[in-house]
Design a protein that fits this description.
Blueprint lengths: L1 E5 L2 E5 L12 H29 L9 H20 L29 H17 L2 H28 L3 H7 L9
Helix pairs in contact: 1-4, 2-3, 3-4
């Protein structure tokens, strides 16, 4: 129990009562906590799959297709960071409260260019290693990034009034396709 003073009288608040101005309802907090935990689990899965893609650290056969994919991944990743500066994004699928909606550069063509760059990098690793198991790893990574994008976009819709319209115009990972 907590005591609060109001208009010169002290009254006691029971465990089930809420203090005035105590913040969002507990039900909302539970949902946000589940989203945050789910987001963190997706990040762990993402990094685990990336580690599996580059492991073992042996010489890879960097063919022309593998190098082309790697070059595209680096170019798209750098272009994304130029337009969406560090400090505006998270590795967790939780939009920053102070974050701004970026719709320029690669974000003009796809909503998640950083995830697309990561998938291009992973595809380069698949081609370079030539291991069929790495294809399954790439597919699992694609599903994890899709789940992260969907979770993040839920938060972006709530935080930015123009996001729903932006999402109607711009595809998620591949311009004009998906």
């Amino acid at each position: 129990m907590r005591a609060i003073a109001s208009t010169g009288r002290t009254r006691f608040i029971g465990a089930r009562e809420r203090l005035p101005g105590a913040g969002p309802e507990p039900k909302r907090n539970d949902i946000m906590t589940r989203i945050a935990i789910g987001g963190r689990l997706l990040v762990v899965a993402q990094f685990t799959l990336l580690a599996w893609l580059i492991w073992p650290l042996t010489a890879q056969a960097w063919s022309l297709p593998a190098l082309a994919l790697l070059g595209c991944a680096l170019a798209l990743g750098l272009w994304s960071v130029v337009h969406n500066r560090p400090g505006n994004f998270n590795i967790r699928p939780e939009p920053k409260v102070s974050g701004r909606l970026v719709t320029s550069g690669p974000y003009r063509y796809m909503r998640n260019p950083m995830y697309s760059a990561l998938l291009l990098f992973a595809a380069a690793e698949v081609v370079a290693y030539g291991d069929p198991w790495k294809i399954l790893c790439w597919l699992a990574l694609a599903l994890v990034l899709l789940a992260k994008a969907m979770l993040e976009e839920h938060g972006l819709r709530a935080q930015h009034a123009g996001y729903a319209e932006y999402a109607k115009r711009v595809r998620r990972f591949i311009p004009g396709v998906f």
